[in-house]
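Let's do one together. I've listed all components of the complex below, 234 residues spread over four lines.
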Amino acid sequence: MVLLSMATDPLGLTFSALADPTRRAIVARLAQGEATVSQLAEPFDMSSPAVSKHLKVLERAGLVEKGREAQFRPRRLKPEPLRDLSGWLESYRQFWDAKFDSLDAYLKEIQNKDTPQ
Amino acid sequence: MVLLSMATDPLGLTFSALADPTRRAIVARLAQGEATVSQLAEPFDMSSPAVSKHLKVLERAGLVEKGREAQFRPRRLKPEPLRDLSGWLESYRQFWDAKFDSLDAYLKEIQNKDTPQ
DNA sequence: TGGTTACTTAACCTAATGGTTAGGTACGGG
DNA sequence: CCCGTACCTAACCATTAGGTTAAGTAACCA
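Okay, and this is what the predicted structure of the assembly comes out as:
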């Protein structure tokens, strides 16, 4: 059921891939250009199999693509899932766009003056 | 560690809240106006405690707010996390924006000339 | 050819997720 | 005041997620 829905729910795959901070850091790194697994693993205090697993999750979501060059398997970022995510978000623009809820925006203005949060 | 990072990682909370299709459906429903728990539960083939749990996840992410009116606890959608998500996405616009693709390819060309290791 | 580097796979562990049922609490109506 | 409706909490269960170590494959290098 989860298995099934996940397999047929690309948006869900994307969201859950990006839910992990390690994976978002990998995405951030790959946004600056392709990188090998070792390079991607270097900043993290975790084993390389763990990084491999994270990469597999990103690949399953279509966010990352694996290349092969000699003994290296360079990864690069793929734009499509991010584009899809943006499309989904866009359908809620009326909610997070300040113009929509002027009262909400106004309250927030006030609040932002000294919100400790 | 997961506990800790999640507590201090609002973006991660948002992504994982939205990873579940039931929760995205709830968000879609709430985008049309506030609704009670029973109203939200109605379309789903699952117990109401299950729906309550989903709502708690959405609330923890700040996506949903709980009101109280007599015996009802109407939920409404909050825009902030969606706005934050949009901000995060925006920082990757260069990747999913089609116009940028050719430049991206060009940068990759250059980079491959002297990639160490 | 044998060692080293790069990476993956397998087996395992713990904790979180997503569901259940059963048993609360709180409110409004007859 | 009691009953039904609305909702939440607790306890439990199965599966998934995220990490580990150990062992495997593959390519380069001396």
